[in-house]
Amino acid sequence: MNDAVVVHRGVSGPVAGAALATAAGAAPGLLGLGETTLPTGALYGLGWPAFGIAAALLLDRDPRSRLGRALVALAVVPAIVTMTALGAPSGWQAVEQRWQRFAVPLIVAALAVIAWSVDIAADRMSRRRLVWLVAGSAALVAAVLAAFSSGGSRVAAVVTTLGLWGTAALICRLATMRELRPVDEPLVDAAVAAATLLIGAGVGTLVRIGGEHTGVPRPDVSGAFSAVVAAVLFLPAGLWLRRQFLTRRYGPGALSAADVAEITADLHTRTEDPRELLGKAAAMVAAASGHRQVGLVVGPDLPDVPGHWALYPLTVGGDRVGSLYLEPRHPEGPEPRQERIVRQLLPTVSLVAKAVDLAVEAGHARRDLARERDTERARILGDLHDGLGPVLVGMSMRVRAELRHRPSPVLEALAGDLADCRSDLRRIVSGLTPSVLDDGDLAAALDRLAGSFAGQGPEVTLGSDLDARLAPEIAVAVYRSVAEGLTNALRHAHAQRVAVQVRTTPDRTVLVEVTDDGVGGPFAPGVGLSSLRRRAEELGGTLHVAAGAGRGTRLRVELPAGDGAAG
């Protein structure tokens, strides 16, 4: 087992210097504590060592911090003031005079040094840091001036001490924080607190005045109790208003069950394009993070967006599958709180992008397979049309010529069989070839197909309500589905009536139904139905056949409408 190595780092020189400055600044105050009567000057001096403590913290983080070095210099101000005054005959009395004369100028000078030493960059957080520093400095100067004018030197010394400690803590906090809230948000917090206090005080005052006029015993107690109750009752409303304000700015930070249900409401229905899911994922991010515009693209290429928009890569397994882009409310980008929300959602959004990419690739693969099968069918069609067709015609002509010279029952039967074979061949070719759709009119092709069965047995009725924009492979599949359903009804069902319905549903699904009143099932699917089922599945659709004994047969095919004109 390896022994753990512990490295002890000694105190750095800048931190040691800050500690010495703190001790030097605190020494005059500690000397004053030894006097019989605590001098006011000792109180003035007890506030400045706080800068030394803040300097040590900053220099420990960054030994080259200009702000930390400036605070080291401010920490020794009490020692400098005391050393210049103790040389006078009056001793501590001279120190008192120095502090009362120069306390406010020294504080202003110290704040000026702090402002000079802060590294101000032209970014959002630095500007907020400067605003908070100016606000804290103004509050310190105002408090000290108010104490000097109304409370006397000792009260002013106490206020100065507390103010310097508070200012040092504020400076240290501002210098170490990486995220700062917008300035108006603490104002909202202060407004909620002030409104709560004012409402409580108002209600308590009214109750006390009413109690005095009506002679209620101890109206002050009643007023105080009413003030507390009113404040407690108003506080939830104030916090709700604050939450509403933050939600409008940053979003809720998470998705509720209602948000998820609304966004995923139609995920189980058929979609024409799986890329529609990207819009739902973008809506999820926008709802959670409070951004106005959020978009998603699939692929390794970067989208073309304005320069101030934020762009996040979507990766799965180390591969970039897409990009998320959003329009921030601030030109410098999302707020840190929004940034965290977006990054928490990135893994989920990346999986959505990957799933959409796979779905799009699967759609392309299905269309490629359908085109290959069409090519193979065209080859088979050529072989049937140019090879077997002429052979059957020639055989039929020879048989009928021989029948005219030497009539016989065998030749008569053979001529009929050849005629049936030629009729079956024409029907097979009609089902294989997409040439009937060359004019792009699927409805007319279906009318001709239904008409070709006239006089051969069942009565065929056709109802058609199709969208004109169907992908070519979908149009061919619809045509072949109707042809297969009519052929089966004629050959096997012994039906009297066949109803064909072809329509495009509102969710961009093509629905084909062929229903007959024939003998029904049970039956074993043949080559035609099996081939039709494979074609429907290749195109992302389904085929169902329902047949009951003596109740006819219904063939139902559902296909995605695709995109493009039929042809």
Automatic annotation (TrEMBL):
Gene Ontology molecular function: any one: ATP binding
One annotated Gene Ontology cellular component of this protein: membrane
Signal peptide: none
Entry keyword set: ATP-binding, Kinase, Membrane, Nucleotide-binding, Phosphoprotein, Transferase, Transmembrane, Transmembrane helix, Two-component regulatory system
Residue ranges occupied by any Histidine kinase domain in the UniProt entry: 478-563
Protein name from the UniProt record: histidine kinase
Sequence intervals crossing the membrane: 42-59, 71-92, 98-118, 130-149, 155-175, 187-209, 221-241
Entry-linked Pfam families: HATPase_c, HisKA_3
Record keyword ATP-binding present: yes
EC number(s) on file: 2.7.13.3
Catalytic activity: ATP + protein L-histidine = ADP + protein N-phospho-L-histidine
Gene3D superfamilies named among the record's database cross-references: 1.20.5.1930, Histidine kinase-like ATPase, C-terminal domain
